Amino acid sequence: MSTRAQVASALASIGVLTLGWQVGTANGQTVAATTTTTTSGTSGTSTTSTASGTSTTSTASGTSTTSTASGTSTTSTASGTTSTAAKTTTTTTATSTSSLKDGTFAGASSSNRYGSVQVTITVAGGKITAVNATANANDGHSAQINSRALPTLKSATLSAQSGNISTVSGATYTSVSYQTSLQSALDQAKA
Amino acid sequence: MTEPFVFEAMGTVVSVTAADGVRPETRTRLTDAFEALEDRFSLWRPDAEGARVARREVLVPHASPEFRAVFDQAFDWREATEGSFTPMRPDGVIDLSGIVKALAIAEAADILDADGPDWCINAGGDVLVSGVQVDGRPWVVGIVDPDDRTALLSQFTSRGGRHAVATSGVAERGEHVWRTGADATFGQVTVAADDIVTADVLATAILAGGPDALERCQDRWSIEVLACAVDGRLWASPVFRA
User: What chain A residue is nearest to B226 in terms of C-alpha separation?
Assistant: First the structure.
C-alpha cells in the first residue's frame, strides 16, 4: 500500500477511535509539543495529528479532533465543545508526524445486545500499526459478538486475489459506466 | 470459460454466468422478467404504474395488487430498519426501484434454477450466486474499492448454496432509495446475506443510517458487512477480515 494510503488509514482509524480515547494524557492537554489544542467546558479527549497530503477530521460529542496537512488547517467541533485550532503545525515530507505516543492504548467500550467490544490500538513510530477489537460477550453470546463487523484497518481486511474473481459487487453502474467497470472487463475476458 | 449472457435492463447491465452457458429460451425468460418489472414499476416510462403513482394519477390503494404487494414489502422493510431504508423520497414520491431490482434478481434465480444449480447473476453490482463454478471452484465475488473503481477492496467466497452480495454506494445517492435521518459516515456498504432482497435493502439501510444502523441490522439479521467510511475507516465482519 502506498504511504499516502497508509497515512490515510492511520488517520482514519484515529478518527473512529477517538470516541472516548485516553491517549495517555489528562483531558484537554496536549499530546505532543508541536501542536496545541485546547478545549474548554467539556470533558473528553483531544487528539491532533498531521500528515502530508491528507486531512481527516471527525468528531463526536465530548471529543475534539484537529488534523492539518500541507499548510491547511481544518477544525471541526461537536455540539457542546469548543476548541481552538493548533497554533503550530509540523508536517514532514513523505511520512506523517503523529502526536500519538508509541504504545498500546485502549479506547472506550461500545456495547450491543451480546456484550461489549473493546478496541485497542498499537502505535509505533507515531502511526497506528494494529487495531485489535476484543469482544467481551455476555454469557453464552461469544459466537454472536465475534461475528460482528468490527473496526479495522484497510491493511487488515482480506485482500482480493484478482485472478480468482468471478464477478464484482460495487455501487450500481449505469449502462454507460458499466463500459469502464471491472465487471465489463470480466465479462469480456470470459466471452 | 463460459461466455456470460449480458443484457441491459433497468438502466444498468445484467451479467449472467451458468455452467454450460445460458440457453436461448432461458435468455428470453430472463429479459422478459426484468422487462415486466420495469414496465410496471418504472418512474420514467409514462404509462408505467410506478410513474402514474408518482404523478398521483393513481393512488396506492387503487393500484394493482402486484404494485401494492411490492409497496407493502418496501414499507415493511422501512419499519424493520427503523426508517433507515425507505421508499419514500423527501419530496413524497414513492420510489420502489431499489427493491424492484432485487426482486428481479430473485425471479431470475428461479428461472436459472430450472436449468441447474450452478450460476451467477450480477445486476448492476448486486450479485446472487448459487452452487459452484463449472470447474468446481466456489464463486468469488470481488468488492470494488470505493476510492478506485478499477481496484478491488476485498472479496467474498461463496460456501455453496445461494449467497447474495449487494453493495450500496455514494454513486447511488439520490438515485433509487431516499434516506431519512441520513448519517454520512459511510460511503459504501457491502452486505452478504442468504437472499438478495435482504442484502440489497440492508446495504442501503446501513449506508443511510451509519454505524447505528450497522449495529441494529446486525442485531436483527444474519449478515456479513464491509462498510467503508468516507474517510477511509472500515468496519469488517469476520469473512472480510484477513
Answer: A149
Residue B172 is predicted with a pLDDT of: 53
Residues B104-153: tens digit of each pLDDT: 999 999 999 999 999 999 999 999 999 999 889 999 999 999 988 888 99
B200 contacts in chain A (CB < 8 Å): none
Locate B41 and state its grid cell: 414499476
Give me the domains of chain A, ranges plus CATH numbers: 103-189 (3.90.1010.20)
Mean pLDDT, rounded, for A100-118 = 71
In this predicted structure, what is the pLDDT of residue A136?
74
3-state DSSP assignment of residue B118: coil
Q: The pTM is what? A: 0.70
Q: Which of A158, A166, A191 lies closest to B139 in CB terms?
A: A166
Burial (CB count <10 Å: 0-12, 13-18, 19+), residue A67 = buried
B144-173 average pLDDT score? 88
Residues of A in contact with B237 (CB under 8 A): 147-150
**H or E stretch at A147:** none
CB pairs under 8 A between A and B: 194
- Which residues in chain A touch residue B240, judged by CB atoms under 8 angstroms apart? 157-158
Q: In a 10 Å sphere around its CB, with 0-12 CB exposed, 13-18 middle and 19+ buried, how is residue A32 labelled?
A: middle
Residue A180 main-chain phi, psi, to 5 deg: -110, 20
